[in-house]
Amino acid sequence: MTDAKHAFDADAGIYDRSRRQLVWCFDDFYRTALDVIPFTTDTAIRVLDLGAGTGLLSWSIAAAFPRADITMVDISEEMLSRARERFAGKSHAVRFAVADLAHATFDSSYDLIVSALAIHHLAHDDKQRLFRKVYAALHPGGAFIDADQALGPTAASEARYEDMWLQRAREQGASDGDIAAAIERMRADRNATLAEQLRWLEEAGFRDVDCWYKFYRFAVFGGFK
Q: Are 209 and 143 in contact (CB under 8 A)?
């Protein structure tokens, strides 16, 4: 993920500003990831956020689950520095760790493991290994929720995904500079189809594997232990 690290280090300062333009289904996308969490909001849960970036998803989880204990992992120190700023002065128990998801190891004590727009940067065999490590790191009854990109199931579908992404990004007001920066980051993408990823989750041992939201390339999916 070296290429991804360099791209995200370089763009950490502008990443949040362009989220709703580049992920034009942002609200539904992140809202679904929260809705699927199988705990009441007053539960003290341990959360691991993989590829946490600037902490956008963790911030939403912290707001919804005030007793959450959250660990954020990302390959980019610059992105995590933005997450530290986001959580500065807040009362939540938060931790930060710099690690490459392809090689990271986790303890076996999490109730919820989440990820947003990160795992698609891994090679396919690394995705499968990560899903197995995630399963091992969850408590029984825990959940893994991944809000990520999926490759179109056919070349024609993928072409439609590309065209729609560019069209909607421009309609939402993304600048030429933001689009160019996003395209540069996307050079590190290693997207897999949704069907492949759901199968890999089942093979890792997850039950009730499902996709809860999908709009073109953006999908929220996962399973339970």
A: no
What stretches of the chain show up as alpha helix (H) in DSSP? 2-11, 19-22, 26-35, 56-64, 77-87, 124-137, 155-171, 176-186, 194-204
Q: Are 80 and 73 in contact (CB under 8 A)?
A: no
Sheet holding 69-74, edge to edge: 93-98, 69-74, 46-50, 110-116, 138-149, 218-224, 207-215
87 is written with which tokens?
């959580």
d(CA 9, CA 79) in angstroms, rounded, equals 6
Distance CA 61, CA 71 (A): 12
Contacts with 138 (C-beta within 8 Å, 6 or more apart), sequence order: 108, 110, 111, 113, 144, 225
What is the tens place of the pLDDT at every residue in 83-113?
Answer: 999 999 776 799 999 999 999 998 879 999 9
Query: Which of 46-50, 119-123, 167-171, 191-195 has the least mean pLDDT?
Result: 167-171
Rounded Cα distance between 203 and 127, Å, is 12
pTM: 0.90
Query: Distance between CA 158 and CA 56 in Å, rounded?
Result: 27
Letter for the amino acid at 168?
R
Q: What is the distance between the alpha carbons of residues 177 and 189, in angstroms, rounded to a whole number? A: 19
Cα–Cα distance, 79 to 42 (Å, whole number): 29
Contacts of 2 (CB under 8 A, 6+ apart): none
Give CA–CA dist 164/167, Å, rounded.
5
